Amino acid sequence: MPEPNRDPIDPPYPSGPYAWYVVGVLTFVYIFSFIDRTLLNLLVAPIRRDLNINDTEMSLLMGMAFALFYTVFGIPLGRMADSQSRRGLIAVGFVVWSLFTAGCGLAKNFWQMLLMRIGVGVGEASLSPAAYSLIYDYFPPHRRATALSVYGTGIYLGGGLALLLGGVVIKLSSAQESWVLPIIGETRPWQIIFLVVGLPGVIFSLLLFTVREPLRRGMRQVRDAAGALQQVEIPLREVVAYIRANKVTFLCHNLGISLFAVSTYGAKAWIPTFFVRTHHWTSGDIGIQFGAILAVCGTIGIISGGRLADYLASRGHREANLRIMSLAPIFAAPISLAFPLVESPTLALALLVPLMFLMSAPYGCAPAAITQIMPAPMRGQAAALYLFVNVLIGLGCGPTAIAVMTDYVFHDDAMLRYSLAIVTATAQVASAIILWFGLKPFVRSLDRLKDWNAAQSSAG
């Protein structure tokens, strides 16, 4: 049955089962994107060895090379998502990043790998702004945080599967250092992993064509010469003006979640290497165990965060999404400080269970909060701006901050545990403070959106 329509002007939402099918397809694509971007985290040692690079250069491949181009291309692609075919945009991007992921398996030096990571970032920039926009138009307000949280499970399922896959392949390939493949020639195990996970994405991109473009809700419309209604694209200057009018909300939301992302991206990038260096585990063993924790606890955490936000919102807490975002880093910071410093590897691994739960909880609420305060014709662009700041600061700086502290402050690979503890806990405390200060401005932005919508209705 169609979802109940709470606004008599708007048509009913698409049927619940089909809407959840669309979320399933988008989540499947998101899983692939995180498999492609997370594989590097488990393969630090063999890539460093074969490409002859240090921790800082490795962190640039894990973070900045991807993040910079992901964010730069995200803004124009987000604007396209507000007016062009969203499923087509995602399908093309899926093909692009899959081919560049496979290309990582052909890299012979640092610069070639850097170019491939840039390509992955450009392709993946097409996904989330368009996906957020689709989900918004498929679900009524009281289910959006949950739907976006289910989509967000792709982060943890993809990241966990990347580590699991990498761990299994490393264990299976430990008896043989290289293979000779047709055309390609001598190939290391880590290169084969990139080829295996990248190429199938080209075929799976066809799934996007089972997704129908839903009605864009709340769009500005005018009648053409024939009397038909046409959707009008909002001028960029109006988008900029609206964001400027809500600058405090955007600053607190985007900077707060980005500092939290410094801790999450930094931790996920270096936890496998931390267990190898500090507790002398093999990459295969930690890949399998941490991959399972990330997939299970991250998935439970992000869905729980979204469900709790929707529940609080139904009880009248309009700022519920931002409140969940502000609470997660408060509880995560003590665990982030403790797990790298305990002497028992078993205890360290056990502490990752609640930590991955807490580190994932805000990531369905964050895009839900952005779509909640933005007019319909601006959501893709606002989502792209959120991703711009979040990925550039979080992924661009998180892994590198830990690596720089290890290389240039401690000057010792074995001190990674202290770099991990200091960077993650500090970033989480700062995140909690900034997000908490954003609660009142967020409510004011919700009131401002009501006024904007009312003005548009009067003008129409």
How would you sum up this structure, described in words?
Helix 8 runs antiparallel to helix 13 (283-314) and helix 12 (247-279) runs parallel beside helix 14 (320-338). The strands form 3 sheets. A two-stranded antiparallel sheet has the order 1-2. The protein has a two-stranded antiparallel sheet with strand order 3-4. A two-stranded antiparallel ribbon has the order 5-6. Residues 1-9 have low confidence and may be disordered. 76% of the residues lie in helices and 4% in strands. Strand 5 and strand 6 form a beta hairpin. The protein has one domain (13-212, 237-459): Up-down Bundle (Growth Hormone, Chain: A), CATH 1.20.1250. By secondary structure, the chain is mostly helical. The chain is built from 19 helices and 6 strands. It has helices spanning 16-42, 44-51, 55-62, 64-81, 86-104, 110-124, 127-138, 141-173, 189-198, 200-204, 236-245, 247-279, 283-314, 320-338, 345-360, 365-373, 379-410, 416-437, 439-459, and strands at 2-3, 13-15, 179-181, 185-187, 221-223, 229-231.
Q: Which short descriptors sum up this protein?
A:
460 residues, mainly alpha, Growth Hormone, Chain: A, 76% helix, two-stranded antiparallel ribbon, disordered N terminus, two-stranded antiparallel sheet
The level-1 CATH class: Mainly Alpha
CATH superfamily: MFS general substrate transporter like domains
The biggest sheet amounts to:
2 strands, antiparallel
DSSP helix count? 19
Major β-sheet strand ordering: 1-2
Assign an overall shape.
globular
Give a summary of the structure in a few sentences.
The chain is mainly alpha-helical.
